[in-house]
Write a structure and sequence with these properties.
about 180 residues; alpha/beta; Nucleotidyltransferase, domain 5; five-stranded mixed beta sheet
Length: about 180
């Protein structure tokens, strides 16, 4: 049976959700900022990737979804986040032998609430109401649940039925 995995990526607190045959598991993988310059940051991001993969306990056929980040702004902090996200996606692709499916922040919100501009608390509330079996602890895990839902839809095997208003247009292109 296919497992669908959602990752709400962050360099400090990654929400993770795994669903298989209607059974949900949620986790949070934390990473603390360190001092020591760029090489310490690179090592921390590598360790975070290892921690995520260890938490996932990947299996052949797993479908991974990851939140796509909007890299707005300029400067070293944006550059570092850009590097971290891409490095993690590259690592997940190598380990899972398949590139993760990207679900944008607005798509997460629309899947959960029907509105692409909903706030994080609305997503959390929608998760608690629509998917109480996911038993989430906080916004990161709630987002990860909807990323897993999005990955299942993108893979052609939705794990839940959603009203039409909750389906992002990018998910329905080409469907008849």
């Amino acid at each position: 049976m296919t497992r669908f995995i959602g990752i709400d990526y962050s360099t400090t607190s990654c929400g993770i959700a795994i669903v298989e045959a209607g059974h949900w598991q949620t986790f949070t993988v934390k990473s603390k900022p360190t001092s020591g310059g760029l090489s310490a940051y690179y090592a921390r991001i590598q360790d975070l990737g290892y921690d995520i993969v260890a938490t996932l306990d990947l299996r052949l056929g797993d479908v991974i979804g990851i939140e796509g980040l909007a890299f707005a702004g300029r400067g070293s902090s944006v550059d570092r986040l850009h590097y971290a996200w891409h490095r993690t996606v590259e690592f997940l692709t190598k380990v899972n032998h398949a590139e993760p499916l990207v679900v944008t922040t607005n798509q997460v919100k629309q899947l959960a609430t029907g509105k692409g501009n909903a706030d994080k608390d609305a997503v959390l509330l929608a998760t608690e109401r629509r998917l109480p079996q996911a038993d989430v602890n906080g916004n990161d895990e709630a987002d990860a649940v909807w990323i897993a839902v999005g990955a299942s839809i993108l893979a052609g095997t939705p794990v839940i039925d959603l009203p039409a208003a909750h389906m992002p247009k990018a998910f329905t292109k080409g469907l008849s």
